[in-house]
Amino acid sequence: MAERHPLLGIRLDKICCIGAGYVGGPTCATIAQRCPHIQVTIVDLNEARIQAWNSDELPIYEPGLTQVVQECRGRNLFFSTDVKKAVQEADIIFASVNTPTKTKGIGAGRAADLRYIESVGRTVADFANGNKIIIEKSTVPVKTAQALTRVLEANKGPQSYWILSNPEFLAEGTAVKDLASPDRVLIGGNTTPEGIAAANVLVDIYANWVPRERILTTNLWSSELSKLVANAMLAQRVSSVNSISMLCEKTGADVAEVSRAIGKDSRIGPKFLNASIGFGGSCFQKDILNLVYICESEGLHDVAQYWQQVVDMNEQQKSSFSSKIISSLFNTVTNKKIAVLGFAFKKDTGDVRETPALQVCHMLMQDGAMVHVYDPKVEKEEALTEFKYHNLTVDESRLKFEHSPSAAVDGAHAIVVLTEWDEFKKLPYHEFYATMMKPAFIFDGRNILNHGELQKLGFEVHAIGKGRRPDGSLNMLPPATPGNTPITSPRERKQAATVDGKHPVLGIRMNKICCIGAGYVGGPTCATIALKCPHIKVTIVDLNEERIKAWNSDNLPIYEPGLDEVVKACRGKNLFFSTDVKGAIEEADIIFASVNTPTKVKGIGAGRAADLRYIESVGRTVAQYANGNKIIIEKSTVPVKTAQALDRVLNANKGKQNFWILSNPEFLAEGTAVKDLDDPDRVLIGGPTSDEGVVATNILVDIYANWVPRERILTTNLWSSELSKLVANAMLAQRVSSINSISLLCQKTGADVAEVSRAIGADSRIGPKFLNASIGFGGSCFQKDILNLVYICESEGLPACAKYWQQVVDMNEHQKEAFSSKLIASLFNTVTNKKIAVFGFAFKKDTGDVRETPALTVCNMLLQDGAMVHVYDPKVQKEDALIEFKYHDMQVDENRLIWESTPQKAVDGAHAIVVLTEWDEFRTYPYHEFKALMMKPAFIFDGRNILKHRELEEMGFEVHAVGKGRTTDGKLNVLADSESSKKPASSTAAAAETRAAAAAATAAAAATVDGCGASSGSTAPSHKKPSVEESLRSTTGKVVLVTGTAGFVGFFTAMKMKARGDGVLGIDSFGSYYPSSFKRSRAEELEKAGVLTVDMDMSDFESLKSLVVKHKFTHIVNLAAQAGVRYATKDPHSYIKSNVEGFTNILEAARLSDPMPSIVYASSSSVYGLNEKVPFQESDRVDRPASLYAATKKSNEMIAHCYKHVYGLSLIGLRFFTVYGPWGRPDMAAFSFAKKILAGEPVKIFQGPGGTELERDFTYIDDIVAGTVSAVDHSTLSTKETAQYKTYNLGNKDPVTVSYLVDCLDNALGQKAKREYMPMPPTGDVLRTCADVSLAEAELGYKPTTPLQDGINKFIAWYKEFFKDGMNKEMTEYVPM
User: Fold this and answer.
1) How confident is residue 44, by pLDDT bands cut at 50, 70 and 90?
2) pTM of the entire structure?
3) Confidence (pLDDT) at 1127
4) Do the Cβ atoms of 702 and 589 come closer than 8 Å?
């Protein structure tokens, strides 16, 4: 008898798919292949289609599909027209029918036609003989499930139905590959216990081959919307780069270079950035138009217009390309033969739906051309069907499909490449040229051909995004792109440069740099160059005396984390700040121009064009003071062709000198500028393509190569480099505006923008960065650069491109105004004389910059409505804000704008809290205390979506957030609690557990697991302790056991993983190595975050095994250990018991689990023992431990290797270097020293032989946790075939002396330590630790970001707050060994 689900009562061994098309066929054939225990029947009323599926000639072409079908067909895969039988036999039904765009009626041309989805509902209701799960596999508009439910409910008998959304993310041509190894599988369902159980049934099916962490679950509406948004954002990337290609053709930039440069930005990524004739296919245009229609239906007309621009730009690109063909062929193609290579919308498919070839061929035929098409997979009948669908009249005598490319080309005037088939790259174009009319043209609509070679053959070549020279040839770069293939080796250049101290070709001195402009870009950039290049003298000059004084003081004129340390390390050595511009220019021959380029405020281009007065001034100043040849480097953000203007200024004023201008745009994010400079995604250098220009470029390449890997240093021509900065910022801002536009739709429909962002961010073609919905973007760059781009497009006669990019700014303004309007409307439509507390005024966290901050618009609208606005921002002063208000001509009543020194003062008596900057401290405020101070009802408007909304609502706040709708009772439609319960189940028994958990939601807080009581403190906690089920709820597919959660690293790791949606259960024995009360405090904090810590000793193997086997964890993160080096001399047996026996028990328990979890475990830098070579690398020998602790950690690595080799356990070991931070171990230096300094007790600092100081690679806890979580995400499945054995260093790669640590503590505490230096005792300490983290950087994306002083400041802030009422007796009396 078939297995039935214990809660839903459905059979689990049969699946029916209604619809045998592009989606249903490949998807369910793959399910049959991967799940041989499930019978899959695909049904369709189209008999011819079903016959084809049952033949050797499948009805659709997809690489690899034939093999999949032939493997399963007749075994557990069947194709049939008997819909009734299939529906009755199977209780899991996929709806994979067509959802075309409506062609008539309301919404024609945009809305989805859901007649076939409705038909599925009626068919299932007619034939159903029991409960059914119906899965929307088709692409549908948001809320389709609601309509389908109404159809089913209105026609059902006693059956129950559960509807799931499971959108497909297949790319035609790679569908089989996409199904076999998807980026993610998205499943949306209802949030009831039965809805969760139904979702878990589908999770279990996919989990037969898809790693559970790639299976995402959301609510129904978020899932339905995510597919539309994903396709819209992919299409948007295509339209965006195509709009830039038009500008490149006008300006001389190369779109391929621009794409390469922006694609190296990890926030953007390289995919879908190939300029082309435009996008096609069945999904992109249909889904965007559907999205447009939904927005219009919901009254979001600005959002609709925003997305309509993506389609409009695509049409513009096709039309522009077609017009270029005709105009190039002497403005007529009448009776000319045109060879078209490719008709499918992309390679490796025969699909012609919405293909760009349609419009191009139609325009050519309308102009009288004879169009001869060759496509290896498309027949003429398919093309004619698509022409007819679009109501395009075709004279069939002028459209001929050829069976070979040579037949298409023979006698043709031009070849037009419209599909990127690989075979087109290898065709014999030299032979084609001989058979064609002359002049012979090639129009490459996909940029796949070798244009230089084709021009040598005699072709006149036209390509996307490449301009033309006066002689008509393409404006192509030399074969060796400047800088990528240096004309000499770095060593040869260095030796040559020593001749008379000058460069042998350019005659410039290379040991001095001058930077004109000491602002946000010039200061940090050239300070970093000084730090990384101690052999180069760097002088930063500015006419602003106050600014230079500040740079020479202890209070720098700008705030950037880590900048103080960089400047102080170099200032007075090889870094100088001065107002002597003349002297600096005369002394240095390499000059950075880092001056401001604001938007013009008057005259032509006001409000959009860049004001280049300061760049012009640099040119005149350099020409005036130059005493020799100079390289001038544009570091400022400038419009394309600025170098040309600068060159004119220089050459009009020069003497005998030569000048070479380079473009080297900055890609710094305020708040992380020092980190961005230290470890950039890429450095972009544009220069002239002359021999001397290449040499000049290479000089700058060599400077950066002192610390930047050469593969990250990209070189282009000048125009491409200048344009790339504008495009990069425009595309980043576009991502922000795009997700913000979707947040407005989410608020209307009940979807959750956070879930939508997570779903589309898991798509590797899109990526997760810059997808956090918010009040809008700000800062000095985004808006300025986009408006500059808009102005350039207008100036170059590209109004459609200008309109396209203007929409990004318009949407940003709309978002800020919509948020402000919602705020006022929620406060009973008036804020007159109401106190409003504003948290944050800076445009982003970790900076004091207020330029273009969204807070400006919000506060101004509140003030205009009569509010009393009280602002708290940790880095912004009122004077800064007033200057920005004035710059934007906003009239401010200063009596109504009050700056507060504490958040409590801002909140006291306020009607609402408005969060406008995502400062980390705002997340941890005591909002329960704030509520008591506020007027009632108390409101919170979270403009950054950083707060815990459900907790705030439970406190009594009325919470409003970006991209989250409201329920009928006025509360946020928050999914955090209910949705997190939808963990991907490890078996069908999970449904019964879910039902039991729902019934026991109000059970006692104390929970027991396998006979082991959960942890508790000496008094009952004031919060509700989570149950095991609650702790393990997951929205990511990861269900993780973390050992040592009451310890330092375990505590933060568990907190981080739970916060992102993982299911996390902790265990800890609460040992007495240091005060257990402190450990229990950590455990209580975790309970508040929803993580339960079970009181369990890892030496208790039976209990541990029972826990691991029962809960089928996807991952185990083993962080429990007996810590400390010196303590081993006192209690060596505890190390063996915990670190060796306990670790082995973990591996044994994991081995006995089915499936086996992947494991990440903590090793230690101590394994390097007595090694003297630094930095320590993972490949170094580690067989000379200096302590028993180190020996046990080394044994862990050896045991791990054994379990990988013998059993197939997948293991990653992490060698932690000295970790510190809030909640740190009391025995560690930072904690114990702080305690002693505050108590006035001496601090003991150990020294090695000869008085040498100990050095440690102190690493901040956030960096360690980021590396640990990344290791979890990069772990492979524990099978013999996939298991891995890896070891990584996680450190700060910046060792300092212990004395320097004490200096940092002195600074943070404002109190000097009493220092006692003494010889290092023989207890196992080593002289120095230093991590080489290059392997972790390359494979885990690990990047430590916290300088020691910053980390110590955070630690001391926590320490003072945590112990503000004093330490308990146990902590007071604790003395570390």
Assistant:
1) very high
2) 0.67
3) 74
4) no
